[in-house]
Amino acid sequence: NRPDDEQPGQPGSAEIEAAARAAGLAYRAIPVTHAGFSSNQVEAMQAALAYADGPVLAFCRSGTRSTLLWALAEARSGADASQLASKAAAAGYDLTPIRAFLG
């Protein structure tokens, strides 16, 4: 969920994708900037989660954008908002900024 060139020296999406594929892992880029989330990004995350055959690693600089996007996608798929908030809190993240959109 980290856009290319967010910070100097970070690997680009193409480089990360090549490494993931070389390791036999699927890869999906869903870049999210600090400007917020679009419906298309939430739908893309929802599809990535539905497609996944096993654990999913979503990442950004701090994990916050990935956690919020995950919660929005899971809520759209029918997950309970309180359970999502509990899971996020257990990982050290707060869903308060998006709570109203979780249902």
Walk me through this protein's architecture.
- The chain is mainly α.
- It contains 4 helices and no strands.
- The chain has helices at 13-22, 39-51, 64-76, 81-90.
- Helix 3 runs antiparallel to helix 4 (81-90).
- It is globular.
- The two termini are 23 Å apart.
* Main beta-sheet annotation: none
The sequence of SSEs as H and E is HHHH
Q: For the residues shown, what is the average pLDDT? A: 94
Question: What portion of the residues fall into strands of 2 or more residues?
Answer: under 5%
Distance between the termini: 23 Å
Number of helices: 4
C-alpha-based Rg, rounded = 14 Å
**pLDDT under 50 segments (min length 5)?**
none
Inertia-based shape: globular
- Estimated structural class: mainly alpha
Give the quaternary arrangement of the chains.
single chain
Number of strands: 0
Helix content: 40-55%
Features:
single chain; 103 residues; mainly alpha; 4 helices; 45% helix
How is the secondary structure organized here?
Blueprint: H1 13-22, H2 39-51, H3 64-76, H4 81-90
Helix pairs in contact: 2-3, 3-4
Briefly summarize what is shown.
By secondary structure, the chain is mostly helical. It has helices at residues 13-22, 39-51, 64-76, 81-90.
